[in-house]
Amino acid sequence: MPAIETRNLTKTYRAYRKEAGLWGAVKGLVHREYDEIRAADGVSFSIEEGELVGFLGPNGAGKTTVLKMLSGLLNPSGGEARVLGHVPWEREDELKRQFSLLLGQKNSLWWDLPARESLELNRVIYGITPNDFKQIVGGLSELLGVTDKLNVMVRELSLGERMKMELIAALLHAPKVLFLDEPTIGLDVGSAQKVREFLKHYNAGHRIVTMLTSHYMQDIQELCHRVILIDHGRILFDGPLTTIVDRFSTHKIVAFTFEEAAVRDFTVFGEITEQTPQTVCLKVPRSSVAETCRAVLARERVTDITVQELPIEEVIRRLFQQTASER
Ligand SMILES: Nc1ncnc2c1ncn2[C@@H]1O[C@H](COP(=O)(O)OP(=O)(O)O)[C@@H](O)[C@H]1O
Ligand SMILES: [Mg+2]
Questions:
Q1: Same domain, yes or no: 198 and 267
Q2: Which of 6, 55, 163, 322 is a Cys-bridge partner for 213, taking CB atoms 3.0 to 4.6 Å apart?
Q3: Nearest ligand to the CA atom of 228
Q4: Do the domain assignments include residue 281?
């Protein structure tokens, strides 16, 4: 049995349409018109125990909506889902004890308490013994480098420190499933790196199932082998990150090094992405790599050629742009 499974999961929000002007307001009193937003539109996937899956998509794609349904915070408009065999929106206690949802844009800790006391409240809720609590908080805070911040008021923590405390709170009851929604949003480079290292380490050690959404490709590239791409509520791709380049990358970067430095014009060969007197990088369609090499070799004295893929970040950005323009 997969740890997480969804079939045709759909969520439609109703947003009331406000018409401009007084007449619009009067009409709105009589019969309200609304727009339907399909935030999740037939979402199906399945995730096995121990997987750490990146859930990627532009703003408004439906990521948070899906995670909220899987956490039982939202009822779907249609479709099915199982998390550890339970229907999440039935909100059974047995499931609640086995998963966590961390929303990077919200805080769950008490603002006016030291982090440790806020965590202590969670300890009571989950019925964790003081001994286990001490061990778990000690271990996690050590790994995250915030042991000396446990007695600081949450409101006085930096964003990075607060997020690390949120992570400890999310992992206190040793969940089997972890939903992380933008856990590195707004963090400084160092904190984001620390959080990534921690997640990698924790996932490897605990075989916890993790779904991670992030705006930062670096999070995804460092942590996730598999990604699910979503846009306008629909899944565009589900598979290994590396396959995205094979399947969707339209161009390659061909880099040439020349025997001698000189002023050369390469505009006829393709888009120039970098150029020095002795080197040039050309962005060319995948299908014309060989032809471009031949043409350059015929004209120049070349000492080295390398062919590289486009950065995955760029491929994904183009993919989303392309589907947006197809609409
Ligand atoms: N409570 C709500 N009421 C109406 N529309 C909503 C609500 N929450 C989200 N939406 C809309 O649903 C779509 C998906 O939102 P969301 O799941 O938050 O996307 P993401 O997390 O990928 O940025 C967006 O168009 C958003 O504006
Ligand atoms: Mg979101």
A1: no
A2: 55
A3: 1
A4: yes
H-only helix segments in 7-129: 21-30, 63-70, 93-96, 115-126
Q: Give 113's contacts (C-beta < 8 A, 6+ positions apart).
A: 121, 153, 154
| 327 belongs to a structural domain | no
Look up the domain containing 67 and give its range.
4-244
Residue 28: alpha-carbon gap to chain centroid: 38
Q: Is 40 helix (H, G, I), strand (E, B) or coil?
A: strand
C-beta of 214 in contact with ligand 1 (< 6 A): no
Give domain status of residue 317, yes or no: no
User: In terms of domains, do 176 and 259 share one?
Assistant: no
193 CA from centroid of ligand 1 (Å): 28
φ, ψ for residue 173 (rounded to 5)?
Answer: -95, 20
The closest residue, in CA terms, to atom 25 on ligand 1 is 60
Q: What is the pLDDT of residues 231-242, one digit of tens each?
A: 999 999 999 999
> 233 and 176 share a domain?
yes
pLDDT by residue (tens digit) across 238-262?
999 999 988 888 899 999 999 999 9
If asked whether residues 174 and 283 sit together in one domain, one would say: no
Nearest to 136 by CA among 156, 157, 150: 150
Using CA atoms, how far apart are residues 325 and 33, in angstroms rounded to an integer? 28
What is each CA distance from 80 to 3, 11, 52, 70, 100, in whole angstroms? 14, 11, 22, 10, 20
| CATH code, 266 | 3.30.70.1150
